[in-house]
Amino acid sequence: xxxxxxxxxxxxxxxxxxxxxxxxxxxxxxxxxxxxxxxxxxxxxxxxxxxxxxxxxxxxxxxxxxxxxxxxxxxxxxxxxxxxxxxxxxxxxxxxxxxxxxxxxxxxxxxxxxxxxxxxxxxxxxxxxxxxxxxxxxxxxxxxxxxxxxxxxxxxxxxxxxxxxxxxxxxxxxxxxxxxxxxxxxxxxxxxxxxxxxxxxxxxxxxxxxxxxxxxxxxxxxxxxxxxxxxxxxxxxxxxxxxxxxxxxxxxxxxxxxxxxxxxxxxxxxxxxxxxxxxxxxxxxxxxxxxxxxxxxxxxxxxxxxxxxxxxxxxxxxxxxxxxxxxxxxxxxxxxxxxxxxxxxxxxxxxxxxxxxxxxxxxxxxxxxxxxxxxxxxxxxxxxxxxxxxxxxxxxxxxxxxxxxxxxxxxxxxxxxxxxxxxxxxxxxxxxxxxxxxxxxxxxxxxxxxxxxxxxxxxxxxxxxxxxxxxxxxxxxxxxxxxxxxxxxxxxxxxxxxxxxxxxxxxxxxxxxxxxxxxxxxxxxxxxxxxxxxxxxxxxxxxxxxxxxxxxxxxxxxxxxxxxxxxxxxxxxxxxxxxxxxxxxxxxxxxxxxxxxxxxxxxxxxxxxxxxxxxxxxxxxxxxxxxxxxxxxxxxxxxxxxxxxxxxxxxxxxxxxxxxxxxxxxxxxxxxxxxxxxxxxxxxxxxxxxxxxxxxxxxxxxxxxxxxxxxxxxxxxxxxxxxxxxxxxxxxxxxxxxxxxxxxxxxxxxxxxxxxxxxxxxxxxxxxxxxxxxxxxxxxxxxxxxxxxxxxxxxxxxxxxxxxxxxxxxxxxxxxxxxxxxxxxxxxxxxxxxxxxxxxxxxxxxxxxxxxxxxxxxxxxxxxxxxxxxxxxxxxxxxxxxxxxxxxxxxxxxxxxxxxxxxxxxxxxxxxxxxxxxxxxxxxxxxxxxxxxxxxxxxxxxxxxxxxx
Amino acid sequence: xxxxxxxxxxxxxxxxxxxxxxxxxxxxxxxxxxxxxxxxxxxxxxxxxxxxxxxxxxxxxxxxxxxxxxxxxxxxxxxxxxxxxxxxxxxxxxxxxxxxxxxxxxxxxx
Lengths: 949, 110
Fold this sequence. Notes:
Order of helices and strands of chain B: HEHHEEH
Helix content of chain B: 55-70%
Largest interface: A-B, 28 and 21 residues
Strand order of the largest sheet of chain A: 4-5-10-7-9-8
Structural class of chain A: alpha+beta
Radius of gyration of chain A: 38 Å
Oligomer: heterodimer
Strand content of chain B: 5-15%
Distance between the termini of chain A: 63 Å
Shape of chain B: elongated
Strand order of the largest sheet of chain B: 1-3-2
Radius of gyration of chain B: 15 Å
Largest sheet of chain B: 3 strands, antiparallel
Shape of chain A: globular
Number of helices of chain B: 4
Distance between the termini of chain B: 29 Å
Number of strands of chain B: 3
C-alpha cells in the first residue's frame, strides 16, 4: 500500500512539479499568516506580529527546501538541477566544450565503428528462428575414419591434415538419414553442403551461379520463410521428386530483376531443366556467416545436375560431404544428445561391409552451439578484428586521459567557485556529483557525435573492403540496437572514468586561502615542483599509448612491405586469368581436352598475346590441392609424403616464366596420349610385374622437392606412386590423374602456390586432364584490353560456355594481401590519431602551464634571465614528459605487441628498429608541440606580468 | 523540542501528529499547537520539522490533505487521517507501550 501511494506521489511530484511547488509555497505562507493572526489575537501589533511570525518560521525558503529534500523523487530533482547547471557551465566555456566533445567523439566513434564490425561478423545471431537451440555435429576420433571421399566447405573448423586425433564436421548421406530419424533428442535435423558451381542457362546468356545442397527439412527447421512462392520441403528431398530450386532474394533481384514471373519459370542448371518454385525472405543469405550462394536445391535431386564423376557416388556411406545441424528438444541437454548420436555414429562407422574405423580409434560426436561452431569466414577476420578492437580501446583511453587533463586544468580555474560552494556548507560529495554530472554530460554529447563518426567510419571501411573486387563481404552491416547500447555504455563509463579524478582532486581545496582575492594564491604549490602532478601523469599516459599504437602500426606496415617484396617465383605482370568449367555444360573428358587445346592455340594467335596456357588452379589464387605419394626405391617409415599438386598444360612454365632447372617438361603429345584410364592397380613397389607394366605418367617436380627428398640422387627418371588425393579448398577436384604411377622427367624452380605467406613445399606438376581449368594469358598490353576478344573466341567455340572469375594476376596478388593492407591502413590511421591526441595533450598542458606561470616568467626576465633560459624552462618540462612517456610506452609496446605475432611476417614483435623509429618520431612531435607555448613564454612582457593581478 | 533531538524522536513526532489528528482534521499550525497542548508544552514542533513530517506521512498514505478555510477565513491546508493512518497509530501506540515498559523495567533493576 505504502509503495503504491509512494509511486503515485513520485509521479505527481515529477509531472505536476509547478503545481506542487506552488502548493507548498502557499502552504508555508499560510502557516506564517496563521501564526501572525495568532499573535495579533494575543495582543501584538500587526507589524510586530508579522515580524515575529517570520522569525519563528525560520525562513520560508529553508522550510520549503527541507520539505523538498524528503520528497519522493528528490534525487531526480537534484539530478535535473545538476544537469541544468552542468549545461550552463559547458555553454560558458565553448572552446573547451567543443574540444572535449570532438575529442571524445573521435574516441567513442572509433570504438563504435569497430564494434559494429565485430558485431556484424562475430557476434550477430544466425538469421534464423531461435538460433540458440541449434547445434552443429562434429566428429572426433583418434585416427581419421577411412572415408573414400571427404569434402568440406569452410563451414566449420577442421583439424589440419596429418594432425593427431582429427576432427571434422562432414558426414555421409546415409549417416545423416540415420540421425534424421532420431527424434528423441532432436526437434529437427538438417544437412547442407556447398556452395557448388552451376552453369545457368535459359535466362539470358549463360552465366555461372552457385548452389547450396540441402536436405528437405532445411528451411522448416531453420524457420526461414518465402518472400515469394514456396520453400523447399521434405517432399522435394526424395529421388522421385521434381527438379525444383529456390532462389536467394538478392540473386532474384539481380538475375531476374525482382520480377514475380520468375516463379514457375524453367532454367537449365548444367543443362538440366529446373523449375523455380520460390524466393527466400530477404534477411536470409546463408546459415553459415559470411558465406553466400545463389540458390538452393535438394540432396536427392542434385545428382541429376551432372557433376563430374567424383560426385556421382554421393549416396555412399564412404563419402562424407554434408554438414549436419540439429535443433535440440527443449529439456534435453547437449551431453544426452551427444551420447545418443555418438552411439549411432559408432554403429554406422564400425559395421557394414567395410568398417571405416576400428574400435580403438574411439569415434565420438561433439555437439557445438551452431552460433560458434559455424565459423564460416569468421576465422579469417578474427585476428585482425581483435587487434583493431585493442587499438581503438587504447585510443579511447588516450582520449579519456586527454579530456581528464582538460578538466583538471579547468577545475583549477574554477577553484574559487567551488570554494564558495563548499564554504556555504554544500557537502563535498554533492559538489563532486555535480562535477561528475558535467563530465558525463560531456561524454554523452561526445557519444552522440561519435555515432555520426561511427557511421562514417563503418561506411569507409565497407568501401575499403568492397574495393577489392575479388572479395565479397557477405556480412550484413545493418544498424543494431546492441551497437547503440554499446555506445551509450561506453560514453557513461568514459564520463565517470575521466571525470572522477578531476572532480575529487578539484574539491580538495584549502578554503581560506582560495577565497582571498590575492592572485598569488592562484599558483598551485604542488605544480611548481618539477615532480609529477596529475596532469603531467595524464600527458605521459597519452604519449605512452601513442607509442604502443604506433609501434603496432609500424610492425604491420613492415609486414605488408615484406609481403609485397616477396618474389613469387614467376613473372606476375600482365597475366589475364579466367576459369572455365565445361563439365557443367555436359562435356566429357576427351572433348574438354580438345576444347582447351583449341582455345589455347587461338588465344596464343591473338595479336597482343605473348603466350597462353591453362592449369587446374591459378597461382596465388588461394586454391590448393595436395596429395600423398611414395617414392619408389626409397622406402622410408615416414611415407607416404604429403606434397602439393598442380595439374598444368605443357607450356605452363613457359607462360608463367618459371625457369626449368633440369630435364624437360612433358609435351602436348604425352599429355594427349595418356588419356585412357588406368586399368591396372598400382604396382607393387618391390617387384614390378612383367605382365602389366603401366606407362608411367610424366611429371615435373620443383626444387623444394629435390632438396627434401632427393638430396643424394638424381631425381630424373625416378618413379612416384600416388596415394589419396585430398580436395582443394573450393570443393572441386582436378580431373583425377589417370595413372597412379608417375615418372619424374624434369625439375623447375620454386614458386609460391596458393598464398604468399605459405612457404614453398615440395610440389608435383601433373599433366592436366579435363575438369575445370584456369587459363593464363600473358599479354603484351594491359590484360583488360584483351578480354572482349577472348570472350569472342570462347563464344565462337560454344555460346553456352560461361566464363567466370576474370581477373589479372596482379589483382589476385593484391587480393591475397588485402587483409594486410586493410589492417595496416587502419592501424596507421589510429596511430596518427593517437599521435594527434598526445600532441594536443602536451600542447594544452604546456600552454596552461605557461599562462599560469606568466608572472614568474615576467619576474625572471625582469631579473635578467635571457630568452633561452625561459625557453629551456618550458622545453625541459616537455622533454621530461616525452622521455618518461616514450620509456613507459616502449616497455609496454615490447610486452604488448607480442599479441600481434600471428599477423606479422618477416618481422618480430620485439623489433628494435621499429620501436626506435617510433620513439624518435614521438620525441620530435612532442618537442614541436612545445614550441608555441615556449615562444609565448618568452614574449611575456615583464612589466605587464608584474602588474597582472 | 530542540533541534538536536529531532533525529532520535522522528518516529515519536509521527506518532504525535497521528494522535493529534485522531479526533479531528487540522491545518499545520493547528497540529503544532495541539501537540504542544497534549504534551503539556514538552514538545514544541518547529515548522522545519513539522512540514517535512507532514509531507512524508502524506506520501506514505497515512494522511490526506485538502485546502479549506480557517477561522478568520484564511486559506489553509487541512490534514486528515486515513484508515491506514489509524492502523499505523494503533500499532505505533502498542509498540511505544512495549518499549516504555521495557525501559522502565530496565531502569528499575539497576
